From TrEMBL:
Natural source organism: Bacillus paranthracis
Domain Tyr recombinase: 100-270
Keyword annotations of the record: DNA integration, DNA recombination, DNA-binding
Lineage, broadest ranks: Bacteria, Bacillati, Bacillota, Bacilli, Bacillales
Family: Belongs to the 'phage' integrase family.
GO molecular function, one term: DNA binding
Gene3D superfamilies: 1.10.150.130, Intergrase catalytic core
Core-binding (CB) domain ranges (all copies): 1-81
Protein name: Tyrosine-type recombinase/integrase
């Protein structure tokens, strides 16, 4: 397979050298797949292109991974003057990342929530709210926690969030207030259940029951998770570390917390036009 002419074509189209090399590599991989499927670039059909995209998607590739490969194929099709091969090709859509920070609690809202929760004197619910706010765990991670996932010492503590297969997903430091309320809750327990949080019937707390805990205070669990992420970024912690603490596979997801919130934008406009 000869791609020298294709590389020259790309350069003439204004592509950077690094992009040219990437496109050539993508086309080479496409060629190898075609050969495996008893086809070739010389006999390329629209069906081949569509099946290759289905193949990439079936291998677990995200749309953001498939897009540059498809772009290389588009350029190659233009190079061989066969634009008809691209008619009605279906490919995964790239989800656009929001450029406004997810909804989170302001400092005043957070303090009001904590005061309200503590007034309830429900040790389990207090521990749940503090743990979620100060570790940013997802609600399904919260209800899956066991006592052994909590490690507390005199001056420090950690929460181990397990992945679905039982391996260690990540370790999150436990701030002092979260440790305090967890200890109070655990000391009140007289059972031998391994689950960290129990229902009123002595069984592991279900996801729906946990959701109701948050709803009783007029919030959702993800608001506390977003508050955690936003507070970390606002404190100057680098994005890579925040991504690790929050369990994000894609750092671009974490970058949302560096974006301004709608409240930030409103305040900025007010400051500009205030008299």
């Amino acid at each position: 397979m000869e791609l020298k002419g294709f590389g020259t074509y790309l350069l003439e189209q204004g592509k950077r050298e690094i992009t040219v090399e990437d496109y050539k590599r993508h086309i080479q991989n496409f060629h190898f797949w075609l050969v495996h499927e008893n086809s070739s670039l010389q006999d390329l059909t629209r069906y081949d292109i569509q099946q290759y995209i289905y193949f990439l998607s079936g291998c677990g590739n995200q749309a953001t991974t498939i897009t540059p490969k498809f772009s290389a194929i588009v350029s190659y099709v233009h190079f061989i003057d066969r634009e008809d091969l691209l008619h009605d090709i279906k490919r995964p859509e790239v989800r656009h990342i929001r450029h406004i920070s997810p909804k989170s609690l302001s400092r005043n809202q957070r303090n009001q929530l904590l005061r309200k929760v503590e007034q309830s004197e429900n040790l389990r619910n207090i521990a749940i709210i503090y743990l979620t706010l100060y570790t940013g765990v997802r609600i399904f991670e919260l209800v899956a926690l066991n006592r052994e996932d909590i490690e507390m010492r005199e001056r420090s503590g950690f929460l181990t969030v397990q992945d679905g297969k039982g391996g260690i997903s990540r370790k999150i430091p436990l701030p002092v207030e979260s440790r305090y309320h967890l200890q109070r809750y655990l000391q009140s327990r007289t059972d031998s259940q391994s689950a960290l949080f129990l229902s009123n019937y002595g069984k592991r707390l279900s996801k729906r029951s946990a959701q109701r805990v948050f709803e009783n205070y007029g919030i959702h669990a993800h608001m506390l998770r977003h508050t955690y992420g936003r507070e970390l970024v606002a404190s100057g912690i680098d994005i890579a570390t925040v991504a690790e603490l929050m369990g994000h596979n894609d750092v671009n997801t974490t970058k949302r917390y560096a974006a301004p919130s709608m409240t930030d934008l409103e305040q900025a406009i007010d400051n500009v036009f205030q008299r």
